[in-house]
Amino acid sequence: MPRPVVVWFRDDLRLADNPALSAAAATGGPVISVYVHEHRQDGTRPMGAASRWWLHHSLTSLSRDLSRLGAPLLVLRGPAAIAVPEFAAKVSASLVRWNRRYGLAERELDADIKTELRKRDIAAESHNAALLHEPWTVKGKTGAPLKVFSPFWRAALAGGEPPAPVPAPSRLTGLAPSSLADLGGVAIEDLGLLPTGPDWSGGLAEAWTPGEAGAQARLAAFLDDGFKGYGALRDRPDLASTSALSPHLRFGEIGPRQVWHAAAFAVAQGRTKASASDLAKFQSEVGWREFSYHLLFYHPDLATVNFQPRFDAFPWRSDPAGLTAWQKGLTGYPIVDAGMRQLWQTGWMHNRVRMIVASFLIKDLLVDWRQGEEWFWDTLVDADPANNAASWQWVAGSGADAAPYFRIFNPISQGEKFDPQGDYVRRFVPELAGVPAEWIHKPWEAPPAVLSAAGLRLGQGYPRPIVDHAMARNRALGAIESVKPNVN
DNA sequence: TTTTGAGTTGTTCGA
DNA sequence: GTCGAACAACTCAAA
Known about the structure:
Strand order of the largest sheet: 3-2-1-4-5
Shape: globular
Structural class: mainly alpha
Strand content: 5-15%
Order of helices and strands: EHEHEHEHEHHHHHHHHHHHHHHHHH
Distance between the termini: 73 Å
Number of strands: 5
Helix content: 40-55%
Number of helices: 21
Largest sheet: 5 strands, parallel
């Protein structure tokens, strides 16, 4: 009996375009699929509640798919540093394969495990499933890591087309179920990933289908319906004009190579009316994900430390009431509240609205971006260690490639520009359902007759603005002025 | 080494 | 209503 190969699944919960799995399958020998549930001792950042919900369903889906292929998923409890080497030794594995992660704690953990495996005469091999271009492969002419998106993306594109995705193995040689039962696996249901008392996940379940099949369906639907005009319409939260692939990418239910090539193929085959510039725009959004991972790799503290140290002196306000109003979608600014409620109900928020709500928390309330980052981390199903951190820093202006100091979003004009009929607001803020488009982004300015016709009493059914934007804008400009470079 | 052009996503004001 | 200019000055990346 040949020694088995262990495939350790992490942020790559898919069968197709999974190099670790394909390499293991290629030998024809026995394969054992393993997932190790996170443990604080691993030093990695614990997932938020919405992510845990997603993980539960994604693991369930992966487990079904792997069983069908012949190598059922075995779920173990961490810490991984102990569980993985012990398990590999117990089953007399010859080799453990996994796909790489890019955070510092994750890399250190993997390095430790590799060492531990070698001591036991077990080989370890890692692969790239998560990125088109791994961080160390993208460099400028000087060889230094790049800090600005445009040069980064130019350099990445200069490397040529990303490799084509590899297909899922058609079958795997697993262990007999009887021998699997003795290996100490845990039922997914027993991991405690789902919310209890109360179960708030109804809106998530309605909005999403976690798992590889759900990811493929979402991609197909996007290419058929949302891709055409993507370049311009992606900014419209009232339309279904973004791919909404982010949570699927986060958990690796689909990979960027698959997305890249599927989009290019659809355009080349004329199966979509999307233009070449729609394609380039969509691919560059995938590029932003790559750039975030690039930043995270070279700046592991991205989620907690200002990329630009001068922001360490930023005069953040302590505003627990404001933070709570923001979290609950009760700021009195309809577009902000709609976004925050979409997040709470569905675990996701449209990209344009993320910028608006983040700008509001940071610039209008002067609340530290890290508090917003934490809230997103807990409530987003796509909470991603690289994207979330890099994006919050970008809005704060503390990040790489900083926004100009004067870029402070006006929640009224942003609403009017990107949700012109107010349909998005009405969908998530039912109190405002009866307010006509003309006033929906600034109900406090509406004539009393309009408000009463809409059945709305400000301050009772829906709050008045918790802060005056014009005042807040000036206050933010002053705060930014105080951390200006070269202030002597 | 020095220089030069560029840098995701905006707002306001005045003509 | 529309349009262009002004809004700090800096850092990055490449020539």
